Amino acid sequence: MRACPVCGIELTRTKYEGFPVWECAKCCGRLAARSRVKAIERTRRKGREELVREAVGEKGADTTHELRCPKCHGPMRREPLHRYLDVRVDVCRSCDVIWFDGGELALLQLAYEATPGALRDAEFRERIETMSPERRARFEDNLRRLEAGPSDLGDAFAAGVVEGVLCAHHRRHRPR
Ligand SMILES: [Zn+2]
Ligand SMILES: [Zn+2]
């Protein structure tokens, strides 16, 4: 059996966005092979609203103590999840797996959505159509500057896009 490194209960083998993961029914934490994470990040079967709901609403707490790998039981290392996000995940280098606390995979997908490459995607442009005229004008202005300007502006803009979701995620997961 593979046990949840946070709760200790048995993990269930399931799929996330079509990719195999081990999931904890209690804390919504998920174990994924590192090789799958890039693909999960770019997959868009879930809508943005569903991802936001997951990122904010899933019950898991952002773990702060050292976790043991569910596969080899060795210590896991804390690593940053994404350069735009103040979130760390637990990694086992020997098994090449990553433990995501509840909501963190959704956060990763949302962060990818805010990168310049994804912003140019037709699918994303479609969503812009539904924005209010003022918001859309501001957004398109930002996008033009992003495409023309230096990458640090792009980073700042992308960070701004995910900031709202991240704040809500942190409010939910790290109550003061
Ligand atoms: Zn758990
Ligand atoms: Zn391991």
Explained architecture:
This protein is an alpha+beta fold. The protein folds into 2 domains: 12-123, no CATH class; 132-173. The protein contains 7 helices and 6 strands; from the N terminus they run βββααβββααααα. The chain has helices at 34-42, 48-57, 104-113, 116-119, 122-128, 133-148, 151-173, and strands at residues 12-16, 19-23, 30-33, 77-82, 85-92, 97-100. A 6-stranded antiparallel beta sheet has the order 1-2-3-6-5-4. Helix 2 packs across helix 3 (104-113) and helix 6 (133-148) crosses helix 7. The longest helix is centred in the last third of the chain and has 23 residues, at 151-173. The chain is elongated, with a radius of gyration of 17 Å. The structure holds zinc ion (ZN) (2 copies). One zinc ion binds at residues 4, 6-7, 24, 26-27, 29.
DSSP summary, beta strand count: 6
Described by the principal axes of the CA atoms, the overall outline is elongated
Helix content: 40-55%
Structural class: alpha+beta
Straight-line N-to-C gap? 35 Å
Number of helices: 7
The total domain count is 2
The biggest beta sheet is recorded as: 6 strands, antiparallel
Order of helices and strands: EEEHHEEEHHHHH
What portion of the residues fall into strands of 2 or more residues? 15-25%
Strand line-up of the largest beta sheet: 1-2-3-6-5-4
Radius of gyration: 17 Å
What do the pLDDT scores average to?
77
- Unreliable stretches: none
